[in-house]
Recover the amino acids of this structure.
């Protein structure tokens, strides 16, 4: 039953992405129609950003007023930028962060992602991606020594999407296979929608199958 429901949600998401992406190619999207589609289908899609980077101003605003935050990212560079700075220095909200395991085996998901990105970014590859993830884990480790409520875990699962969720909504990006996340479209999901629940379910599954960082990866 769970697999069936996830299949239905995936189909709805794919249909919505194609539908809305067509508006972007045609010109200014009709956001009132996006809202209507969201209410009729129960998906909860309220905004679509053509590129993930375009969502950062709205994301920063939502993070600043969040009661809790859950983050699953493919690399974690956004965690070191101004978007997250108020969360680290001003907000008391508990934060759970999932980063890919930089010490996973050479033939695992993180390596596959690094290889794929190398097809379109000649400066990229598995070793560089691992190094960037490791640096971001060390950054969070330093944050964690000064800010209570930050919990970092590592995962070794398909490196194909990003979730940043709060109590009011979620930002969901499905990475293009050969594109950096910042160039991939991003959805904003209202907390009342089915896709928000699905995104939280994906996060909780990854969290349950994650591991504590080892020494050198932001761990003790």
């Amino acid at each position: 039953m769970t697999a069936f429901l996830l299949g239905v949600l995936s189909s709805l998401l794919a249909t919505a992405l194609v539908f809305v992406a067509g508006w972007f190619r045609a010109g200014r999207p009709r956001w009132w129609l996006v809202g209507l589609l969201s209410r009729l289908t129960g998906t909860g899609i309220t905004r679509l950003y053509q590129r993930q980077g375009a969502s950062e101003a709205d994301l920063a605003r939502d993070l600043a007023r969040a009661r809790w935050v859950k983050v699953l990212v493919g690399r974690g560079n956004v965690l070191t930028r101004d978007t997250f700075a108020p969360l680290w220095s001003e907000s008391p909200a508990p934060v759970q962060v999932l980063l890919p395991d930089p010490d996973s085996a050479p033939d695992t998901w993180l390596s596959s992602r690094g290889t794929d990105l190398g097809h379109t970014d000649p400066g990229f590859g598995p070793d560089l991606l691992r190094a960037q993830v490791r640096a971001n884990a060390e950054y969070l480790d330093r944050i964690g020594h000064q800010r209570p409520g930050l919990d970092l875990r590592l995962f070794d699962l398909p490196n194909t999407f990003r979730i940043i969720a709060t109590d009011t909504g979620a930002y969901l990006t499905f990475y293009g296979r050969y594109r950096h996340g910042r160039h991939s479209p991003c959805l904003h999901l209202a907390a009342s929608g089915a896709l928000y629940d699905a995104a939280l379910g994906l996060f909780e599954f990854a969290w349950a199958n994650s591991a504590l960082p080892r020494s050198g990866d932001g761990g003790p």
User: Anything to note?
Assistant: The longest strand covers residues 95-100.
